[in-house]
Design a protein that fits this description.
It contains two helices and 31 strands. The chain is mainly beta and about 450 residues long.
């Protein structure tokens, strides 16, 4: 059976912001299908030279699904990799635009476009109508050296009802930065209401409410087929913090032959992982009372007595006889210029409230020095299949919460000892300006 598909070149001429995706290195896409291996995918076969007619295998029938074709020529391949970013040069090169679909290195003060591609794969136009289609961008509200921006597509009658993907922004020089959303920048482009330059979307697109899209009106209705696909962009600005130290969070699974610490690992319920927080003093001055804290996600259980500190004095590591790493934090002492330390501890994967399918357990490591708190994260990916007869919605990715930061209690006086001393303590009131504070206060003044 043949299905009519609008030629890719015609859509490129209208959409204007389409470009070439960089081949994926780390797959960050997902959905709430409840399937351990992810949603059903489809392939275009027997296409003519202009992709005006193709077979879709397997046949979709009446099923409505988004971004599940693995060889879409318009975005360079797999539609599941549908969120990308590029430097906003002010020049729109159409097909020649180069989108980074997985990672992009950012420069201080530069503006970037983040793009989301949405395609209802059903080939039957209005007969395959998707309902209540809503887009969301999830932006980090904290600073770090690696920040993820997630885009998601929701539809009440699609299967799955939510699909998502992300792109990671990386620091160019190891300094922390945050992403400042440019208000009023959300632009929607398609062959209908968003033709000829696009139409503005509400800033709700970066909130939990999201923004509805549509073909002939912003009513949430998207017919099926290439003719009705769309591109949505927002603009963000990278703002580097003038900090004097760096923080890197990594993880490894205990028992694996590969003992390398990484940004992400796969694990199962019952497995033990080891987290590592690397602090480095990049200033030219000695600093005292470096505070370290970790924020465990809901389905990770800290293993008591496993926290160890590694530094110049303790090259083989010293056990920290206090488990406040996950509560008030620990004081790891003072460090000279270019001095650094590694803090490691272990946690067990437990199933408190996991959903069926893939669970992304996000762990945050925080380091407080003087008036600044910086953080970085690491992921543990857990696939749940037991008792998964019925799909369960996938929750939003974990984020650090306000009450997870260092408490604002006034601590007892802390000694100004060297890195060999490990003293439990907390950050005092007025001594920390949180990164969220930097983000909110700087929106207008730094743009």
């Amino acid at each position: 059976m043949k299905h009519i598909i609008k030629t890719a070149s015609a859509v490129l001429a209208v959409a204007g912001i389409i470009g070439v995706n960089v081949a994926p290195a780390v797959m960050a896409w997902g959905d709430n299908s409840g399937n351990a291996s992810g949603r059903q995918t489809y392939t275009l076969t027997n296409c003519d030279a202009n992709y005006t007619t193709c077979n879709i295998e397997p046949l979709l029938g009446d099923k409505v699904t988004f971004n599940s074709i693995t060889n879409n020529p318009e975005i360079g391949g797999d539609e599941r990799n549908f969120v990308g970013a590029r430097l906003n040069t002010g020049v729109n090169s159409g097909k020649a635009n180069k989108w980074n679909a997985n990672e992009i290195t950012v420069e201080d003060g530069k503006e970037y476009l983040v793009r989301l591609y949405a395609h209802n794969n059903n080939p039957n136009a209005e007969k395959g109508m998707a309902k209540d289609v809503t887009l969301h961008f999830t932006l980090p509200t904290q600073a770090g050296t690696s920040l993820s921006v997630q885009g998601s597509i929701d539809s009440s009658n699609a299967n799955p009802t939510r699909v998502y993907d992300d792109v990671v922004f990386k620091s160019a020089d190891g300094r922390a930065f945050y992403l400042d959303y440019i208000e009023g920048s959300a632009l929607y482009e398609n062959n209908g209401i968003g033709a000829n330059g696009g139409i503005k979307l509400s800033d709700n697109i970066i909130t939990s409410n999201g923004a509805k899209i549509g073909y002939s009106a912003l009513d949430g209705n998207i017919p099926g087929c290439f003719k009705y696909d769309s591109y949505t962009t927002i603009r963000v600005k990278a703002v580097y913090l003038d900090n004097s130290y760096t923080v890197e969070k990594t993880v490894r699974k205990i028992g694996d032959s590969d003992k390398t610490f990484k940004d992400t690992v796969d694990a199962n319920v019952g497995d033990t992982v080891e987290y590592q927080i690397h602090y480095k003093n990049t200033s030219s001055q000695h600093v005292d009372n470096v505070m370290v804290k970790d924020i465990l996600p809901n389905n990770m259980e800290y293993i008591k007595g496993t926290t160890k500190l590694y530094n110049t004095t303790n090259k083989n590591g010293v056990v920290v006889n206090d488990d406040t790493i996950i509560t008030t934090g620990i004081n790891i002492g003072g460090y000279n210029a270019n001095g650094d330390a590694y803090i490691r501890f272990r946690a067990k994967v437990v199933d408190k409230d996991m959903v069926c399918g893939t669970n992304k357990l996000v762990n945050w490591g925080q380091v407080g020095v003087g008036k600044t708190t910086l953080q970085d994260n690491a992921f543990v990916m857990v696939k749940k299949t037991e008792g998964c007869d019925k799909p369960t919605p996938t929750p939003e990715p974990d984020k650090p919460q306000e009450d997870n930061k260092f408490p604002n209690d006034t601590p007892a006086a802390m000694p100004t000892t060297g890195p060999a001393s490990v003293v439990t303590g907390v950050i005092g009131a007025g001594s920390v300006v949180t990164v969220a504070g930097y983000y909110i206060a700087s929106r207008k003044s730094l743009r």
